[in-house]
């Protein structure tokens, strides 16, 4: 448990266990499906931003398949520290970056932005390949292809 807390702390995440759950901590291999309810709230005043138990008047838990690079990577990080049935509260550091100061993920780009990004991402992959960083290059190529596939489907 202390190792988990230290790992989370390095990533700017604080964990408070409300109810300990049962059994041993799972290995959480890639491909593991986890189903859980969540509530997201502002730490400053408790304003609830999102709640899986009351979204749109239905009670639908979140389903997450680990290792599939979900856009909010913090979910995989915090879920991997929990036991079955555990209820915990997490506080995460937040960074606010203005538009133009970061590279958008493909899902957040307009069609024009995706089209413009493909050759840039491709060249970044080529440079990583030349440096022998094959895994990182493959990820860049994958992102460029994902942009093209998305545009092609439209």
Automatic annotation (TrEMBL):
Key words, A-Z: Cytoplasm, Isomerase, Repeat, Rotamase, TPR repeat
Location of the protein in the cell: Cytoplasm
Highest taxon listed in the record's lineage: Eukaryota
Molecular functions (GO terms): peptidyl-prolyl cis-trans isomerase activity
Main location: cytoplasm
SUPFAM superfamilies per UniProt: FKBP-like
Domain PPIase FKBP-type: 31-86
GO CC terms: cytoplasm
EC number: 5.2.1.8
A Pfam family of this chain: PPIase_AIP
Catalytic activity: [protein]-peptidylproline (omega=180) = [protein]-peptidylproline (omega=0)
Protein known as: peptidylprolyl isomerase
Organism: Lepisosteus oculatus (Spotted gar)
């Amino acid at each position: 448990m202390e190792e988990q807390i230290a790992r989370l702390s390095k990533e700017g995440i604080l964990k408070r266990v409300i109810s300990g759950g049962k059994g041993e901590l799972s290995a959480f291999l890639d491909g593991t499906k986890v189903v859980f309810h969540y509530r997201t709230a502002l730490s400053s005043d408790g304003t609830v931003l999102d709640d899986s138990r009351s979204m749109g008047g239905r009670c639908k838990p979140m389903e997450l398949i680990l290792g599939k690079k979900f856009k909010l990577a913090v979910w995989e990080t915090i879920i991997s520290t929990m036991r079955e049935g555990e209820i915990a509260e997490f506080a995460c550091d937040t960074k606010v970056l203005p538009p133009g100061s970061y590279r958008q993920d493909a899902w957040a780009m307009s069609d024009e932005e995706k089209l413009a990004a493909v050759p840039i991402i491709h060249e970044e992959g080529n440079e990583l390949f030349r440096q022998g960083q094959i895994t990182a290059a493959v990820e860049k190529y994958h992102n460029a292809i994902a942009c093209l596939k998305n545009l092609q489907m439209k």
